[in-house]
Design a protein that fits this description.
CATH architecture: Alpha-Beta Complex
Low-confidence stretches: none
Shape: globular
Mean pLDDT: 93
Distance between the termini: 21 Å
Strand content: 25-35%
């Protein structure tokens, strides 16, 4: 069994992504790691090269700056990297996603278990979304709780954006991949980075969705959508959490809800009452 991993990056350092930690977190598991690297104004390339592992291969890319439709340029870059993967499985990690070292053996066992089970096209992870730093995580229904991040590399799949895959069924129509649960978390630190990094990110990425993101003025959201994090962070994140993550955030009990957050509160109540999950699920569960 051969395992590939892949990601795409552009100005990872400037935008505060823990991309080095993300790559390092799965290197012991994979046979190759493909990085589709767009034009950078920082030292992202040098930092990747400094990891010093022969498994890593950088593929230089050009971004279509005219593509401003709902983040499709992200899907394009994701697929450039995936098309370079030669493994039986392709493990996609975004630059702010990290796997805990304790879970690597279980992931290898699961990929081996399902290697010859054609019904399983993807493997789904549970998500731990950090918010405002490393001390709080979001449980709001507006944040996806599960997502496929490993896909069988012998099927026709493509990405409409950076988040999910569509599998082509008999070349006629697209559907979400058939998937099995891993029971393994992915730690998502995108909303744990510093306020300055978040401002830089918002200023640069909004145009790929056809609009400008508003200026990021600080972390603030419905306190009912947040709970303290009591687990253990991946060891590879120690330096980033101390030096790069936002510090000292505390939810505001007097925070004024937006209309969207009011809807999310109702969704959360329905989830509790009926024991259902109303978050986005870009997969069909078969195992």
């Amino acid at each position: 069994m051969k395992i590939s991993a892949f990601t795409f990056l552009r100005n990872g350092a400037l935008l505060g992504y823990p991309f080095e930690e993300s790559i390092r977190s799965v290197l012991p598991l994979v046979d190759e790691f493909i990085v589709a690297l767009g034009p950078c104004e920082d030292d992202t390339r040098e930092r990747i090269e400094a990891i010093g592992d022969d498994k890593i291969r950088i593929v230089d890319t050009v971004w279509n700056e005219a593509m401003q439709d709902r983040g499709f340029v992200y899907g394009q870059q994701k697929m450039i990297a995936q098309y370079q993967c030669s493994g039986d499985w392709a493990f996609y990690l975004e630059g702010d996603e990290v796997v805990h070292e304790r879970d690597l053996p279980a992931l290898r066992e699961l990929m081996q278990k399902h290697l010859h089970d054609a019904e399983v096209e993807a493997l789904v992870f549970d998500y731990v979304h950090f918010y405002g730093g490393a001390q709080w995580r979001s449980i709001c229904p507006g944040w996806y709780r599960r997502a496929p991040r490993i896909i069988r590399n012998t099927i026709r799949s493509y990405a409409p954006d950076g988040l999910f895959w569509v599998v082509m069924h008999k070349n006629k129509r697209g559907r979400y991949p058939r998937a099995a649960l891993t029971g393994v978390p992915i730690y998502h630190y995108g909303f744990a980075r510093s306020i300055d990094a978040m401002r830089e990110k918002n200023a640069r990425v909004g145009r790929y969705w056809g609009h400008e993101h508003p200026l990021f003025n600080g972390y603030n959201m419905d306190p009912q959508g947040l709970v303290p994090f009591s687990g253990e962070h991946p060891a590879v994140m120690a330096h980033w959490l101390e030096h790069e993550a936002e510090q000292g955030f505390v939810p505001d009990p007097d925070y004024k809800l937006t209309r969207r957050e009011q809807r999310y509160r109702w969704k959360a109540r329905i989830e509790r009452w009926f024991g259902v999950d109303l978050t986005q699920q870009h997969f069909t569960l078969v195992r």
